[in-house]
Amino acid sequence: MALFNLRKAEPKDVPDILRLIKELAKYEEMEDQVILTEKDLLEDGFGDHPFYHCVVADVPTEHQKVEGYSVIGFAMYYFTYDPWIGKLLYLEDFYVMKEYRGFGIGSEILKTLSDTAVKNRCSSMHFIVAESNKASIDFYKRRGASDLSLQEGWRLFRIDKENLLKMSAEE
Amino acid sequence: MDFTIRAATLEDCKDISRMILELAEHEKVSDQVKITQKDLEQDGFSKNPFFHGIIAEVPEHLKSRDGHTKVGYSLYFYTYSSWKGRAVYMEDLYVMPEFRGKGIGKALMSKVSQLGLAAGCTQLNFTVLDWNKSSLDFYLKQGCWDVTSDLGYHCMRCEGDALENLAQGDL
Predict the structure, then answer these.
(1) Which positions fall inside the N-acetyltransferase domain (chain B) (predicted)?
(2) For residue B17, what is the domain's CATH number?
């Protein structure tokens, strides 16, 4: 496909971003986990100190395969920090609608993100993938990504709100 | 033990840098630390910081064998979950060996939780090495759960040549 456009997300893209977040969550069988709203996305992504950045892929009307949708892919990312090597780019979400896969849109999004990482003097791009998602793991490994959980033994830990509240109340 | 937990300032970067190296030396990988005190000052204390820090300090009469009163730190930054919204990531948590077992680590983590909640975060994330049994036990006791184990999420990285190639569009 020759005609798709990659651009920085704008406030008007928020409904589409949420739609695609939910589609990706559904693909990961975690649809009920998405509690984020359009209001959150607007406030958190387009204020003075954004918590995230987004690029979107859109197609002109004449190339639409799914009626009504011009935004057909996105990537959500933010900058993190490793005290040993400095700035990193963290890829939070990356998704292209099923009908638009196989045309190089995903590769192009990844290229744009890597370019952003290099331009911002990030030494690395990090992200997480579910081990059951063989297709994505292969996609990333083909592009030189290494699995830190397997190779170095890193395990991602989390504390949810209930326990965060308990912990913050402790003297 | 008498200690205080407070926000890190520019002047603390000398001690934060010292403790980062101590932690790396303990893991026998101090040659991997590329970040200097000056980098920390620039990256953490400019208009758009890439991280925030908190310091654990003891009074002069309780200083370390080497004469330090700044005996622990935590580095954290804000991230974003496309499912739940604002989150806080604890990148480093360290207490000098001679000051462990006195509740300082827990107090540092409690402070990060408080700050995260105040900023509207609903989760605290961090990574732990699978061989670090004492840390794993400490965190599980605080109510954390192992996302890598439970959901099969692997931490992935794309760096160096792989990142450059990706930016160039080479496969």
Answers:
(1) 3-171
(2) 3.40.630.30
**SS3 (DSSP) at A39:** helix
Phi, psi of B101, rounded to the nearest 5 degrees = 80, 15
- Smallest CA–CA distance, residue B27 to chain A, in Å, is 13
B134 located within any domain: no
CB contact under 8 A, A107 and B106: no
pTM here is: 0.88
Q: Which residue of B has its CA nearest to A32?
A: B83
Answer yes or no: is B171 within a domain.
no
Side-chain half-sphere exposure of B65, counting CA atoms within 13 A: 4
State which residues form the domain around B93. 4-126
pLDDT tens digits along A32-87: 999 999 999 999 999 888 999 999 999 987 767 766 679 999 999 999 999 999 99
Q: Rounded to a whole number, what is the distance in Å from the CA of B125 to chain A's nearest CA?
A: 4
Q: Is B76 a catalytic residue?
A: no
Regions in chain B scoring below 70 on pLDDT = 169-171
Which residues lie closer than 8 Å to B131 by C-beta, 6 or more apart? A153
**Strands, DSSP E only, in chain A?**
5-8, 53-58, 71-82, 86-96, 124-130, 146-147, 154-160
Q: Does B10 touch chain A (CB under 8 A)?
A: no
Which chain A residues are Cβ-neighbours of B81 within 8 angstroms? Answer: 36, 92
Beta bridge partners of B52: B76
B8-49 confidence digits (pLDDT tens): 999 999 999 999 999 888 777 788 899 999 999 999 999 889
In a domain, B170, yes or no: no
Judge whether B165 lies within some domain: no
